[in-house]
Amino acid sequence: MGIENRDYLKGDNGFGGPMEAMSRRKPATIVGKLIVVTAAVFVLQLLTSRGQGDSLVQQWLSLDAGSVFRQGQLWRLLTYAFCHSQSDLLHIVFNMYIVYAIAPLVCQLTGEREFLWYYLASAIFAGITSVAFYTAVQLPFHIIGASGAVMAVFMLFAMHYPRREVFLFGVIAVQVRWLLAVYIAMDALPVIRMVLGDAQAIVDRANAENRPLVAHSAHLGGLLFGFLYFRWHMRLTDWWDRVAGRLPSRRPKKPDIKVFNPQVQPESDMTERVDEILQKISREGETSLTSRERNILTQASRQLRKDRNR
């Protein structure tokens, strides 16, 4: 099953003028870096392979109960997301293709720094969710793969653009919201079966067929994180800045009276100002703009339309 990003390149992001120009700028560099790092870890897995799908790198980075609970190696709650199955190339190809296809658009909404925090935090949340689930059903687990973080990215994309169309197999057009519903059902059903008592039977069947057991609980954890992030309007970088002392704990009191004049004429030369605002959107996302910055973009867009109509 493939998701093509043809529709994402049309610049149909609900904005016009300068905002649309911003969408055609170079792709988010943090997305490319995440893909490169994941691919590099996979190459190291292959170079340190011990046969039977195991490797020295995977031994140090994968997520399992013994290492986390008995040895306290908490880094595995994140590093597992950069390892992938050596016997199934589609595992890493499919995950990274989805990141390549939709993450740049999500990155435009959040900003690159926030997107990095979101991706890493969703991987940790998905890992914790999966650990809690397998511990509850009393099954041993050995988890690798970025699927939890990828599902979180897909959930955020779907919440912002539920009616966008993507293409299955490059041919069949389907709205993102229906594809999301299919993913949720495909991951929820096996989890429900395990909870109802078929956990060991499912594991035995997977072993008998010599196929890896899919961590559906990690997928659901990623989807849940994406939903909560959207619903609660989270801003992870702000939280971190407060913890790190980069932002004051108490924000200055806003004035009670605001004066806003929508008829203010555009500044004589707004090119540099617009570029600064677009760079801010690239770094921090569109939600970080102040009222004045939004007004400047609106005026610039109107001026651009007037110039075109002359």
CATH class annotation of the largest domain: Mainly Alpha
Q: Which fold name is given in CATH as the topology of the largest domain?
A: Rhomboid-like fold
Q: Report the CATH superfamily of the largest domain.
A: Rhomboid-like
Total beta-strand segments: 7
Parts with pLDDT < 50 across at least 5 consecutive residues: 1-27, 264-268
Helical percentage: 55-70%
Strand count, sense and barrel status of the largest sheet are: 3 strands, antiparallel
Task: Briefly note the structural class of the backbone.
Answer: mainly alpha
Report the span from N to C terminus: 48 Å
Strand content: 5-15%
Average pLDDT confidence is: 82
- Morphology: elongated
CATH architecture label name of the largest domain: Up-down Bundle
Report strand order across the widest sheet: 1-6-7
The value of Rg in angstroms is 23 Å
Query: Helical element count?
Result: 13
- Could you spell the SSE succession in H and E letters? EHHEEHEHHHHEHEEHHHHH
Give the count of structural domains.
2
Considering the chains and any ligands shown, give keywords for the structure.
elongated, mainly alpha, 7 strands, 2 domains, 3-stranded antiparallel β-sheet, Rhomboid-like fold, 310 residues, 6% strand, single chain, disordered N terminus
